[in-house]
Amino acid sequence: MSNVSEEQRITLEAAAFRRLLEHLRARSDVQNIDLMNLAGFCRNCLSNWYREAADAAGVPLSKDESREIIYGEPYGQWQAKHQREASDAQKAAFEVNKPSH
C-alpha cells in the first residue's frame, strides 16, 4: 500500500474501526465472553486499548468514558439490556483460552 499516504491510512483505519464498533453494537447478542473465547479480545479490551491510546496522546479519558465510546451508551445500561450470565461451557472455555492481556 505504498500509494496510500499516512493521512489516508489513518483515515481508512479510523473508518474500519468505526465500522467494527457499528457491527459490535448491532450484534449485542454476541456476548463478550464469546468474543474472548473465539478472538481473544472483547468490547472491554477495545475500550481499554482506546483509553491507552488516549493516555499516550495526553488526552484524559476515564474507564467509564472509554467504555461508553465503545458500547455506544453507558456500560451499565448496555449490561442491563444485553449481558447474560455466562454458561458453564463458556466459563470453562474462557479458563482454557484466557488471553494474557
Automatic annotation (TrEMBL):
<dbReference type="InterPro" id="IPR023163">
    <property type="entry name" value="SMc04008-like_domain"/>
</dbReference>
<feature type="domain" description="SMc04008-like">
    <location>
        <begin position="30"/>
        <end position="95"/>
    </location>
</feature>
<dbReference type="Pfam" id="PF06844">
    <property type="entry name" value="DUF1244"/>
</dbReference>
<feature type="region of interest" description="Disordered">
    <location>
        <begin position="81"/>
        <end position="101"/>
    </location>
</feature>
<dbReference type="InterPro" id="IPR036810">
    <property type="entry name" value="SMc04008-like_sf"/>
</dbReference>
<protein>
    <submittedName>
        <fullName>DUF1244 domain-containing protein</fullName>
    </submittedName>
</protein>
